[in-house]
Design brief:
single chain, alpha+beta, two-stranded antiparallel ribbon, two-stranded antiparallel sheet, 4 strands, about 30% strand
Length: about 100
């Protein structure tokens, strides 16, 4: 669930799909990281009127270094500690404890 502010709106994205690719085949509000494999077909006409179908396939992956993982974990830990301290101060100020 997403709560938009008064000055915010969704943007519909028009994406290509199919083999060969066709423009505006997919209308989407969100864009995910997948798929990690893609195939496309290119039709080429040569100067001697030969027609070639070139099939291009490729895959990719997103590599996150261990340093980024450790800093992310440290940041989340510090955020939890900070929230805990804020709640503790709130409880002391309002003498709920």
């Amino acid at each position: 669930m997403v709560l938009l502010g008064p000055d915010e709106s969704f943007t519909i994205q028009s994406l290509s799909a199919g083999k060969p690719k066709k423009e505006n085949a997919i209308q989407s509000v969100s864009l995910a990281l997948g798929p990690d494999f893609m195939t496309d077909v290119f039709v080429v006409d040569t100067c001697d009127h030969a027609k070639l179908n070139i099939v291009l396939s490729y895959s990719w992956n997103f590599r996150v270094s261990k340093v980024i993982k450790y800093f992310t974990a440290l940041f989340i830990l510090l955020l939890i500690v900070f929230i805990y301290i804020l709640v503790y101060i709130y409880l002391i100020l309002f003498k709920i404890f």
